[in-house]
Write a structure and sequence with these properties.
This protein is an all-beta fold and 125 residues long. 0% of the residues lie in helices and 50% in strands. The chain contains no helices and eleven strands. Strands 2, 4, 5, 6, 9, 10 and 11 form a seven-stranded mixed beta sheet that branches. A hairpin with a 6-residue loop joins strand 4 and strand 5.
């Protein structure tokens, strides 16, 4: 089993920046991909960014390129999501997930076995 714990959410002003963290513990060797999704109440989960743990290769959907940056700290078993120029539409519950993915990272949440509890990001205008 792998446990994931997010932190860093909260209230941010539109135009500001925010950094989310996701620390992993447990059987780290069973995962090779770590990702961020976000979800607004009543909508499907949306893939935000992903990182291949071993080589650090990053993945973003086209809609997230530019303002979102995913990174990792191997020593801390932690990934980060930096959000710059925050927009009202960024308000959501952000969840990190992890799994073993063969090939390119998937944007399908069903591919990821382990999930954190989520952290709420609220944007004020």
């Amino acid at each position: 089993q792998v446990q994931l714990v997010e932190s860093g959410g909260g209230l941010v002003r539109a135009g500001g920046s925010l950094r989310l963290s996701c620390a992993a513990s447990g059987n780290i060797a069973s995962i090779n991909a770590r990702v961020w999704f976000r979800q607004v109440l009543g909508k499907d989960r949306e893939f935000v960014a992903g990182i291949a743990w071993k080589f650090g290769t990053t993945y973003y959907p086209d809609s997230k390129k530019g303002r979102f940056t995913i990174s990792r700290d191997i020593a801390k078993n932690t990934i980060y999501l930096q959000i710059n120029s925050v927009e009202p539409e960024d308000a959501a519950v952000y969840s990190c997930a992890a799994g073993w993915i063969d090939g390119s990272l998937s944007d399908n949440p069903a591919e990821y076995r382990f999930w954190g509890q989520g952290t709420q990001v609220t944007v004020s205008s």
